Amino acid sequence: MADSILRLTLMGGMARAFLAETTELCETARAIHGLSRTASAALGRLLTGASILGATLKGEGESLTARINGGGPLGTLLAVARPDASVKGCVDRPEVELPLKGGKLDVGGAVGADGELAIIKDFGVKEPYVGRSKLVSGEIAEDFAAYFATSEQTPSLVSLGVLVGERVLAAGGMIIQPLPGIDEVSLKSIEYGARLYEGISSTIAEYGAEGAVFQLLAHLEPTVLERVEPRYRCDCDRDRMERALIALGEAELIDLIRRREGAELTCHFCRRSETFNEDELSALLFRAKGGGA
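The chain above was modelled as a monomer; its predicted structure follows.
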């Protein structure tokens, strides 16, 4: 089945939830970046979380960036999401692989926990909103939960998982957030199911997103309000790369032209490359000097 993000209300409006299946999205990222199993799990979790949050944005030109650097061997992980739940991402060292830890991929060891999770929300007006929280474990789901609690004052239950073999076999995530006015009985009902949510990727593998709603949330009286289709999508094009070259400045462009080697730019998110010859670089230099649009 196609990937999906389901927006739900629980217990007649006592809480809200998002349940996502992102298997195809994460497999696309793995194939583009040549990710190791551990890197697939780490970046896949971040992409899933960012895609869910991206789907909560309203305006067409808005975006959300999630960035983690925990000091581990993977380096910085980055994901950029849009309101249509599309997302793109990258990791500094996609080849990093660590020995299993307790029979599971050591995502926390690869990411590290000596750093922060930053969420940047760009609403297209004035300065972007930037929220930060210290990493808890580098396992990413726990770090998102800490972010919600400290930066948005919204206690949240977060589960993110990626099941990886030779390819991504299943991936998904869930976020549950109590709403103002929730009673103690309803809150305890959410906490009661917490352990069920830990193996989210296995549940997605067996039941898909729709089936997972009833496997995981039946006791919370779920109602599906909306369904969107997340996907891995990069919006780079040659025009963006031209603007990036212009942004280097006149001196750098002149140096590139003098070398007579042209220039090649590769997008970090989709690995697409564009080449620029001397004449094209000269035209960009002309624009950099204010000689054209």
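The mean pLDDT is 93.
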